[in-house]
Design a protein that fits this description.
- There is one protein chain.
- This protein has four domains: 128 residues, Rossmann fold, CATH 3.40.50.2300; 158 residues, P-loop containing nucleotide triphosphate hydrolases (Rossmann fold); 76 residues, Helicase, Ruva Protein, domain 3 (Orthogonal Bundle), CATH 1.10.8.60; 38 residues, no CATH class.
- It is built from 18 helices and twelve strands.
- The strands form three sheets. The protein has a five-stranded parallel sheet with strand order 2-1-3-4-5, sandwiched between helices. A five-stranded parallel sheet has the order 7-8-9-6-10. A two-stranded parallel sheet has the order 11-12.
- The chain has 418 residues and is α/β, with parallel strands linked by helices.
- Helices cover 46% and strands 12% of the residues.
- β4, α4 and β5 form a beta-alpha-beta unit.
- α14 crosses α16 and α17 crosses α18.
- The N and C termini lie far apart (84 Å).
């Protein structure tokens, strides 16, 4: 029988909650303030804590912080009587499982307690399963390639998170590898045949979200049902309109948390929240475990290893693409480029070259022109006094006749090149 520690300074609340909770299969215990609750939790280790926010001498938020510091796996539901959600959002920020706003309905209370127990049981099961397959660690190392400090930190984070079911927010520029990390996390925290449901918030309409997420009664639409037992991946979460964000909050509160939620964003959601452009409650529900992915330009030492990795996935009609080698001058050109498309762009470049090259050795001359930074060229001002045309022709020839590229390098209008 799951146990609930009820923390409230009013004995009448104890009696009322005991009367409605016990008949539903929960064992109840009580504390009249946060300090006593902390002592009792450490002595007895309850499955769930239901605590009022307004208590003395230790209030519910302070109790929440201290319980999570003592036991990060503690499931804590906060009760608040405030009309606004400010205190509830604050509780979520510090790790509360959920909150109940007084006066709440009995069915809402019981449903929240059951979701908390289900979440705790699922997390414990995943932790036990996690020690079995050694494939996960190898999968992380083989798919997150590189020895830079940034990548080593990412690998360690992913290995720790792969075995749990807590929502994760993946933050990084487009093409930085967020989808790959999401796939690894899904594989580590779900059964082998569990579904991974991918929804791109940038491509789905508000109507699609309403039907797919909410369903007919607000307890989860088709997407939620499909993801049960697996993972719901919401990509480009920053693209959701504010009304849809509020609907998503309702889904996360009403569903039985029968899936793992992973969200990705290419923008700073905390900044958007501070600016009022992102729902604050949704932010704290999805961002309890943020994982940052560095852009490729900040980890250029990983480029040689990444090139080899992408070569193993390429094909060439003439020979084994895995045997293709990039010369040092080619690698230097790749390291000098700024890579706005990050890993996705590098993978496309390497794959295309590997598929079309007629030689096993790739030099810088075979790289796309956009990757090359022409250095140490004299300035245009130095070629005035009759030599400007010669300089323009030299640049144009170096750019293989591409006037648009030449004009961009020179900082002139393409018409200037004739």
């Amino acid at each position: 029988m799951p146990s609930v520690l009820i923390v409230d300074d009013l004995l009448s609340i104890h009696e009322m909650l005991d009367a409605v909770i016990q008949p539903t299969g929960f064992a109840t215990a009580f504390a009249t303030d946060g300090e006593k609750a902390l002592v009792r939790y450490k002595a007895e280790k309850f499955d769930l804590v239901l605590a009022d926010i307004d208590m003395k001498p230790m209030d519910g938020i302070t109790l929440l912080k201290q319980l999570k510091a003592y036991d990060p796996s503690a499931i804590i539901v906060i009760m608040t009587a405030y009309a606004s959600t400010e205190s509830a959002v604050q509780a979520l920020k510090f790790g509360a499982f959920d909150y109940l706003q007084k006066p709440f309905r009995v069915d809402e209370l019981i449903a929240t307690l059951k979701r908390g127990i289900e979440f705790k049981q699922f997390s414990a099961e995943r932790a036990n399963v996690a020690s079995a397959p050694a494939v996960k660690a190898a999968d992380v190392d083989s798919r997150l390639v590189g020895q830079s400090a940034q990548n080593r930190k990412l690998v360690q984070q992913v290995k720790k998170l792969a075995a749990v079911r807590t929502p994760v927010l993946l933050q990084g520029e487009n093409g930085s590898g967020k989808t790959t990390v999401a796939e690894i996390l899904h594989a580590g925290s779900a059964a082998p045949d569990a579904p991974l449901v991918r929804i791109d918030c940038a491509l789905s309409s508000a109507a699609d979200f309403h039907d797919g997420l909410l369903g007919q009664n607000g307890t989860g639409g088709a997407w939620v049902q499909q993801a049960r037992g697996g993972t719901l991946l919401l990509q480009n979460l920053q693209c959701l309109a504010l009304p849809t964000q509020q609907e998503l909050v309702g889904v996360l509160r009403n569903t039985a948390h029968g899936f793992r939620l992973i969200c990705t964003t290419a923008e700073d959601l905390e900044k958007l929240t501070d600016e009022g452009r992102f729902n604050d409650e949704l932010f704290y529900r999805v961002a309890s475990l943020p994982v940052g992915l560095s852009p490729l330009r900040d980890r250029i030492e990983d480029i040689p290893a990444l090139v080899k990795y992408f070569l193993t996935k390429a094909s060439n009609p003439n020979f084994d693409a895995n045997l293709v080698e990039f010369t040092e001058d080619a690698l230097e050109t790749l390291r000098a480029y700024h890579w706005p498309g990050n890993l996705s762009e590098l993978g496309q470049v390497v794959t295309k070259i590997a598929a079309t090259t007629e030689t096993r050795v790739v030099t810088s001359q075979q790289l796309p022109l956009r990757l090359k930074e022409i250095k140490d060229w004299p300035k245009l001002a130095d070629y005035l006094a009759g030599q400007e045309r010669q300089y323009l022709e030299m640049v144009l020839n170096a750019c293989r006749g591409d006037k648009a590229v030449a004009a961009k390098i020179l900082g002139v209008e393409p018409a200037k090149l004739g």
